[in-house]
Automatic annotation (TrEMBL):
Family named by the database record: Belongs to the UPF0235 family.
Gene3D superfamilies registered for this protein in UniProt: YggU-like
Record-linked SUPFAM superfamilies: YggU-like
Taxonomic lineage from the root: Bacteria, Pseudomonadati, Campylobacterota, Epsilonproteobacteria, Nautiliales
InterPro entries: DUF167 (IPR003746), YggU-like_sf (IPR036591)
Name of the protein this chain belongs to: UPF0235 protein CMTB2_08545
UniProt xrefs under NCBIfam families: DUF167 family protein
Length: 94
């Protein structure tokens, strides 16, 4: 499963793809992750900052409420509050 819901937060398993032509969710990556393309390079945390900014805009969640685990890895866990936008996104991927 590519996500888990715990304590009104969602934990998303993500495969980040830096240096992409544009920021976008590319879809499922296998059965246990979502692939997200990020424009920024994986240099000095730039891709992680861009990932947080992208997710914040997409899901209408404050940047401060988004936590990344596995900052130096391409496979990460994103923890953020769950809201209607997030629920709609999850339902669309099932």
């Amino acid at each position: 499963m590519f996500y888990e819901i715990k304590d009104n937060k969602i934990i998303l398993n993500v495969k980040a793809q830096p240096n992409s032509s544009k920021n976008k969710i590319a879809g499922l990556y296998g059965e246990d992750a979502i692939k997200i393309n990020i424009k920024a390079p994986a240099v000095e945390g730039a891709a992680n900052k861009e990932l947080i900014k992208f997710l914040s805009k997409m899901f209408k969640v404050s940047k401060n409420d988004i936590i990344i685990k596995g900052e130096t890895s391409k496979k990460k866990q994103i923890i953020m509050p769950i809201n209607e936008k997030v629920k709609e996104f999850i339902e669309g991927l099932k």
